[in-house]
């Protein structure tokens, strides 16, 4: 079937789950999740696959083994695309992004070297500026308080050197278009806009 957006029931499902994150609620509403939440995501990913590659939908259960929050279910559905990109739907709306999240030590070392390099660093700065001009946020989930050892404190890209990861992201609140095939265009436009960042990161840290 063709992707037609997410119906209002998908948002209502997550509103309910946020209010009652329990196995009882999940079991009683699993049919809604399967039909109104997961099925549209599967349809969307199938249509994106020719351009962005296969995708994987994250499991809905939370790993609570090492968490103080023992809520059993995620309050969003999310998928990651093989060629880069991340899609998320929750009660708040739709989010799409790309980047390198929580880089391990070797990748982070290569990232910083590429940021510091005068051949590749300015290119990243230009990519970030273009994304922000297009209304796509670019940020990090965590950063060092100081420029890492081995780089001058007054480096022209000191802010980026302090980043521990780099993500471009765009959010939309719930509106009528989310329940139409037009939602796909917003996803595709954002994934295409973030392609230069994905390419830069692939070359820098892979």
3D structure, described in words:
The protein is an alpha+beta fold. It has a single domain (8-205), classed as Protein of unknown function DUF1054 (BirA Bifunctional Protein, domain 2, 2-Layer Sandwich), CATH 3.30.930. It is built from seven helices and six strands. A six-stranded antiparallel sheet has the order 1-2-3-4-6-5. Strand 2 and strand 3 (86-90) form a beta hairpin. Helix 1 (8-19) crosses helix 2 (23-52). The radius of gyration is 19 Å and the shape is globular. The relative contact order is 0.17. The model has no long low-confidence stretch (mean pLDDT 95).
Which features would summarize this protein structure in a list?
single chain; 206 residues; alpha+beta; BirA Bifunctional Protein, domain 2; six-stranded antiparallel sheet; 7 helices; 6 strands; globular
